[in-house]
Every structure is written in structure tokens, then in C-alpha cells.
Amino acid sequence: MTVATPSRLAPFPPERRDRMRTPAPLAERGFSLRVLHDGDLPWLRDLYATTRAEEMAPVPWPDIAKRAFLDQQFGLQHQHYLAHYADTDFMAIEQAGRGPVGRYYLQRTAPAHLIVDICLFPGLRGSGVGGALIRQSQDEAAALGRGMHLHVVRTNAGAKRLYERLGFVVTDDSGASHIAMAWSLPA
Q: By C-alpha distance, which of 117, 94, 86 is closest to 104?
């Protein structure tokens, strides 16, 4: 089996004219959103590896084998997202003076918008950046009369708590690895 390396991965789609803009509370803190491009694949691969670090820590493989596995998994995830969510806004979250600090993949289609993926490097998790992005997304979905939905990894208790604080409720807990959650327009 051939491993998908960043140089051989499918390219990101072009920027959408109506893509999400940086929420004002984040812009005031020096954050911005921009469309991802193929030059972002190396740091996105590193970001992905941080999401699996705890899971991989007890695995008795050499570091190079762990990294090869994670690179392969990132490649498969990237291909899946592009194949199944091609009309998504694939955005980098950047911080002034630091560069890219995370990613936000948001599909804004009826009947409900989908958070395909949101992830920050560990130092910014829990800082309010993700919450601000999701609140802005909720406001935009509500303005169109739409709700939102997502899937969260079962073991990611911090993310699940964030989603619950933002009004998401569990809609399906029967999957092995992910929990489905949804946010509906307030009555």
C-alpha cells in the first residue's frame, strides 16, 4: 500500500466567494481566517499528529513508525474530507506573529451547516478561539434559518463539553468512535 505524503495529496478547492470571515472577537485578539492551500499540508499533518498524541503514547513503536502511521492517517482523512465535503470552507486559523494555529472546516449547506473539523494546536485549546468560531457559525446558520451538526470523537470530553455549552445536544450515541450532535435554532 502506498502512503499518501503531503506532496502527493489532492489539492484544496479554490476559495469560495462567500466563505466565512473572521469573527470580530477573534480579529480583536489578533486571529484571522484564510483559505488553506497545498503549502499548508506539512503543518496540517503536524496538527493532526497532536490530536492523536495521547492515543499513540502507549503504542510500543519507534517514533518514526508512529509518525509514518500518523502521516498515512492524515492523508486518508484529507482525501476523505475532499471527496465527501468538497463544498466546504477549508480554513486556516492564524494568530498574528505566530502564523497558523489551527484549522476550521465548515460546510454551509441546507438544511443544517456541518462542522466537518475544528482543531487547534494544544497551547490554544480551551482559549475561546474554537468557541468564538462556532458561535459565529451558529449566528450565520441562524440568519439563514438553519441549524448545525457535527461528530465528536467519543474520548474528546473537552470538545464535547464545549459543544454542549454552545447548545449542541447528542443526537446519536450508537457509533463506536464518534457521537453525533446537533444545534437547532432557538424557538
A: 117
Q: Which three cell numbers stand for residue 151?
A: 461528530
0.85 surpassed by pTM? yes
The SS3 of residue 153 is strand
Provide the 3-class DSSP secondary structure of residue 181: strand
Per-residue pLDDT, averaged over 117-146, amounts to 96
Angle of helix 157-165 versus helix 129-143 axis, rounded to 10: 40
d(CA 7, CA 41): 8
Alpha-helical segments (H) within 28-176: 41-51, 53-56, 63-84, 129-143, 157-165
Domain architecture of the chain: domains with CATH? 17-183 (3.40.630.30)
